[in-house]
Structures are given as structure tokens and as C-alpha cells.
Amino acid sequence: MARPSAERMAMSPANLVQKPRRSDRFLDALDAAERVVFISHVQPDPDSLGSMWGLSQLVQDRLGLPTVLTQDGGIFRAENRAFVDLLHLELLPVSKYVRRTGDALVMVDSQPGTGRHSNNALGTMTAVIDHHVTPGQLDGVPFTDIRPDLGATCTLVTKYLVEQRSNIPPKLATALLYGIETELSGFPREGTAADDDALAHLFPLAEKDLLAQIRHARLPKSHFEVLAMALRNAAVFDRVAFAWVDALVQPEQAAEVVDFLIRYEHIDWAICAGVHGQRVVLSARAARSNARAGELLREAVGDLGNAGGHERRAGGCVVLNDVTSTSLDRLRQELTRRCVRAFGASSAIPSPLVPTSASRK
Hints:
Helix content is 38%, strand content 18%. By secondary structure, the chain is α/β, with parallel strands linked by helices. The protein has 2 domains: 19-215, inorganic pyrophosphatase (n-terminal core) (Alpha-Beta Complex), CATH 3.90.1640.10; 221-350, Diaminopimelate Epimerase, Chain A, domain 1 (Roll). The strands form 2 sheets. It has a 7-stranded mixed sheet with strand order 11-12-10-9-8-7-13, with helices on both faces. It is globular, with a radius of gyration of 22 Å. The model is unreliable at 1-16 (pLDDT under 50).
């Protein structure tokens, strides 16, 4: 008897049964929950906030469960504060969260064990959804969806909502759209066809006036003070610019510095390290493709602290045991040396980005 062809076997009814979509599996993982609590990384950004909100909408629509959006640490960047205020996001400080029987914890835009959380004792996650290349501790997590090929976690969440035909109200569409936009705003752009599809789906639904207000939020005086300090201290090593800030008013200002510096035409890398309280906050940006920013910053920081990120955007921190000027100066020199080496500067001899009046003479 002749064997059926591979093509006919593939077309048989038994083989036409579709595997559950990831959005189905995510909802199935929450089947026994009485409440779903969403957790993100410290100082949550629009991608994490929009993603938590989108998944909350999905859970309420499809499972009818109550949800809680938490906030780990402060939200300081002017655009991010405007995002929360204008879209009326209700966030519970994670420090005030008390776990109940029946709670399912979902970590969004981050992973357990990465050093990006103020409370690492919340308990086992039911699900982890992320797009970072920073490796986390995922053993024992019933559902994971980690997609480093996507530009934003909001893209993944938008796909879930579309797959499940869930409602996307205008303010949620605005949040998801801005979350994707902020993740893809660098050059070269870290976008994929899936990110573009999500943006195309969300744009007609979003409130354009709110979007414009968020994009152009008014900036505090400290923004310009920190930027001026960074420019005075910035040194260029071949194609790498490294800026040290003695006192960041807010931790997110390190990212604001590198977002500005990376536009300098003669560099491929911008790195900022700044002191905020009992830690040094680091941020890096690349102006070229296939940059491996997260890997390189993690290599540079090494055993001093934690770091990770994407191809062209990365962040990290070093906890300080000693904040004396002598200790900070040693750390500045060590971080400068490590970054110059890890990011491939051909020369360790710096030149000031903005020469002082004395150096011009």
C-alpha cells in the first residue's frame, strides 16, 4: 500500500488543528487567579506602563478579573510624568502591595533576577512578558513570552489585544503607541515589521492631542543643569563619548544625557554615568546598527553592578558602599577605563567634547 505524501499528511484534519496562540496560553496561565497584579522594572517607562495597561485591559475583557498596576520607584522624566498624568493611570506603589491568596503576578517589560527591581521577594511570577536581551531567572514560571526581536513590549501586547479582539480605548491606544514610539526613537531605528503593524493599527485609535502634549512635555530647570554638567565633563575617546555627572537630580537624566549626546556627528557611542543617591546610574546609546549595547555595557560594568538592554540602548547601575569624593573618583576612572575598552575605542587618550576657555588658548 502506497504511503501518503508529506503534503497530504500536512493537510490531514489531525494536522490542521492549530496550536494555541501565545495570547491564549497567557490567559490560560491565569485561569485559576482571583486577581492579576502587574509588576515592572524600577522607574517604569512608557513601554512598561503601556504594556501593563494593555494586558490589564485584556485580562478584564477576556477573564473578567480585577487587576492592579504597580509602580516600582519614581517616575521622573517629564514626558513619562505627563504620560501618567494625562492618561490618568492608576498605579499602586509596589512597596504598598500586599499579596493576597489568589493573586497572580505578571512581570512586564522585565525579568526576575536582573537587578532592575526594588523588591525581589514578591514571590514566583505566573507570567513574564518582555523584549529585553537581559537574561532573567525564569525557572518555575508557568508562562513566558520573551521576544528580543521586537522593538517594544507594547508591540507584543498590541498583538495579544488584536488576536483576542479585545477593546482598545483611545487612551490605551495612545499609551501603547507612545510606548512603541519611545523604544524606536533612536537612530538607526530598532523597528521590525511587527512594530510597524502595531503602530499602524494604533495610530487611528489614539488621541493625537494628548500624544502631542506627552511628546512635548515642559522640562524642569534640573534637566538643563544636568545637561550642562554632562557637557562640561564629557570626553571623547575616538568614537566613544563618556560623560560623568556628579549629581543626577533624577536617575532618568542619565538617559536624557545620552539621548542628546548621541547626535554628535563624530561618535558612534554615548555613555553617561551619574551619581544618584547610593548608586551610579549608567545609560548608553549607539548610532550604528548591530551594536550589542546591552551586552557591551554588561561587559563594561562586570562585577561592579548590573546592566543590560537592547542592540542600541542600554542601562545599568552600580550600588555605592562609599560615597566619599576619593572613592567616587576611583570609580569614575574605573568605569571610564572599562567603557572605553568594552565599546572599542582605538585610543584611550581623551579630548573634551566642549573645550573650556582655558583649553582654547
